[in-house]
Design a protein that fits this description.
Layout (H helix, E strand, L loop, with lengths): L1 H14 L3 H23 L6 H16 L7 E3 L7 E3 L1 H9 L3 H12 L5 E6 L2 E6 L1 H14 L13 E5 L11 H19 L3 E8 L6 H17 L14 H14 L8 H26 L6 E4 H6 L2 H11 L3 E4 L2 E4 L10 E4 L7 H13 L5 E7 L5 H12 L6 E6 L2 E5 L2 E2 L11 H5 L4 H9 L7 E4 H4 L7 H23 L19 H22 L3 H19 L12 H21 L9
């Protein structure tokens, strides 16, 4: 196929008589050859990314216009892909949209195994059966690697996510951040990136939050021995703190009874931090997330990184003192107001440690640094970018993914408290909802929208539960494959064309499944480009519905459509796509479910 594309491009170059156009034709020829031969070298089929580049090159050559073509999945009945490139070009070249569209079709048609139609300013791309068969062959060859790309090959990317305060077990919302962050990492790795997963701990014992935690543990430790004092109005008294205090009393006995209040609070804070971090790691493992690095604020302070960061900001002239406090001029870089770095009592602000951490991230040689933050931290984006600019860091390498909230409902009522009367905890809900089911519900919703999860639906073992349907269909494909294998017997069906002529006709259900398989590589690339796992979740549900429809037609040997060997190839290819798609969501795909 690549040879045909290259031949068409060379013919255009040879037939060009106008010397003024020779240079543009040569560039275009080289571009087409490199773009599409590369696809074949890496055993890939052209995707939206390749056709975007091709459309941009045609626009540059034919209309002397620079565009970034928009190329999206088409609505049903309008092909597989659609582009509004004619509408993008028209304002800059003086031609009517229809003539632009037909010119683009004449140029790109030789490079597409299918047909292209112009309609109302758009180009609609329809895959041919040959294209679909090529994709099925590729899927059968690549198996678990089907859909992998190289758009990010060699890129080092740091993804920081969850980073919950170490003041107790993980809240329920942290589960959404964990699922999103892990899936984003997998999507990037699937495109060739080298990804580092990182968790940042705000565990500085000098911070007011950790001091309060320690004082709460100390109070309830004394209470265990009947020596409790009048608690202050702001005393931390949740179930976690009381549990840590009880464990400290059991482990150490009366060891700290006669210590100073400061020492007792310090011991309490250390015990609480150890317990919280251990509990969080255990819960993260239950949801299938393991971090490469755990970076702590306390270590940054010990290593002098926070003071070094403040010194850098002072040397660059973006700090000033006011009323005994040290301030950073973040307003100089677009923030709404300046921010405190060191308070008048000498205590470092939370922001100071955060700046030091982000500066350190920028110094570690990553091409991209992605932060997955909750919606409550969205106001921190502007000040963080401003601080990085003040420090001279390359802000363009930093990306901030803001994840909206998540609610859990039972019988229509929103759950706000956990079983102990405290906050809703992820660990408790994982006892009610299977980990993979919960992840699918989190990931099927775009990160900008609140994920509303109905506990009753999420626990169902039927297809009214989208998470169940998503995890069921690989086993359905495996069931159909086993039936087909049994009906074929020992005959070798590894070659797609062994029993079926190339022109064999699929049933509508088979073609829909083949079409989805052919779209998978492209969908995986788009999901990675937009850091959007919900695209994969939506694709999984589309494949699930197509598989269910096929199963309703009966066993493979009585289904209408293609011969049995061709069905076998389709089922194997579909299972490859299903397994990979679920894996990118961090969900286990099983042959039997």
């Amino acid at each position: 196929m690549a040879a045909r594309w290259a031949g068409c491009a060379l013919c255009r170059l040879i037939s060009t008589k106008n010397e003024a156009k020779k240079e543009r034709e040569l560039f275009f020829c080289c571009f087409v050859i490199l773009c599409f031969i590369f696809c074949e070298i890496v055993n890939a089929l052209p995707t939206r990314r390749a056709f975007r580049l091709l459309l941009a090159a045609i626009a540059r050559r034919e209309f002397e216009t620079e565009i970034s073509p928009v190329f999206t999945r088409a609505r049903e009945g309008f092909g597989e892909w659609t582009s509004n490139a004619p509408l993008q070009i028209a304002p800059f070249c003086g031609h009517d949209v229809a003539s632009i569209g037909h010119t683009l079709i004449s140029q790109i048609a030789p490079h597409f195994a299918g047909r292209i139609e112009y309609q109302n300013g758009r180009l609609n791309f329809f895959m041919s059966d040959d294209f679909l068969r090529s994709t099925l062959e590729l899927a059968a060859r690549e198996g678990a690697h089907f859909g992998a790309g190289d758009a990010l090959a060699g890129q080092r990317i740091l993804v920081e996510f969850v980073s919950a305060d170490p003041t107790g077990p993980l809240p329920f919302l942290a589960g959404r951040h964990a699922a999103l962050g892990e899936s984003v990492c997998r999507l990037l790795e699937n495109q060739g990136a080298r990804v580092t997963r990182e968790f940042y701990l705000n565990d500085a014992t000098a911070s007011s939050k950790i001091r309060s935690l320690g004082e709460g543990v100390a109070h309830w430790y004394l209470e265990a021995f009947g020596r409790g004092q009048n608690p202050g109005a702001n005393l931390v008294s949740d179930v976690f703190v009381r549990g840590v205090a009880a464990e400290l009393a059991r482990r150490d006995g009366a060891k700290w009874l006669n210590s100073s209040p400061e020492e007792r609070a310090s011991v309490g804070a250390a015990a609480a931090l150890e317990s919280a971090i251990s509990a969080q790691k255990t819960t993260l493992e239950r949801i299938g997330v393991r971090f490469d690095n755990w970076v702590s604020e306390s270590s940054l302070r010990r290593e002098g990184r926070v003071e070094t960061a403040l010194q850098k900001l002072q040397e660059r002239g973006f700090t000033y003192e006011k009323e005994g406090a040290l301030w950073l001029q973040t307003s100089h870089f677009g923030d709404e107001t300046d921010r405190v770095l060191r308070r008048s009592n000498g205590e470092l602000s939370y922001f100071a440690g955060d700046i030091a951490y982000h500066i350190m991230k920028g110094e570690r040689g990553y091409e991209r640094i992605i932060n997955v933050w909750g919606a409550e931290h969205e106001p921190y984006i502007a000040r963080t970018k401003a601080a990085l600019q003040a420090a001279g860091s390359d802000v363009s390498r930093f990306e901030f993914l803001v994840c909206a909230g998540a609610t859990l409902k039972r019988d229509g009522a929103t759950l706000r408290l956990g079983s102990g009367g405290g906050p809703l905890l992820l660990e408790e809900e994982l006892d009610e909802i299977e980990s993979d089911a919960l992840k699918f519900h989190f990931l099927s919703v775009p990160r900008a929208r609140t994920a509303d999860i109905d506990l009753g639906i999420a626990r169902r073992d039927d297809e009214s539960n989208p998470a169940y349907a998503a995890r069921l269909f690989p086993s359905r494909l495996a069931q159909l494959e086993r039936q087909a294998q049994g009906q074929i017997g020992t005959k070798n069906v590894s070659n797609f064309a062994s029993d079926a002529a190339p022109e064999a006709v699929w049933s509508p259900g088979e073609r829909e499944l083949a079409r989805l398989v052919a779209l998978w590589s492209d969908e995986a690339g788009e999901a990675a480009a937009h850091l959007a796992p919900e695209r994969v979740a939506r694709f999984v549900l589309e494949m699930s519905e197509a598989t269910r429809s096929l199963l309703l037609q009966g066993a493979p040997d009585v289904m209408p459509g293609a011969p049995l060997a061709q069905k076998m190839e389709l089922l194997r290819a579909s299972k490859s796509a299903a397994m990979v798609a679920l894996r990118l969501l961090g969900i286990e795909a099983r042959d039997r479910f």
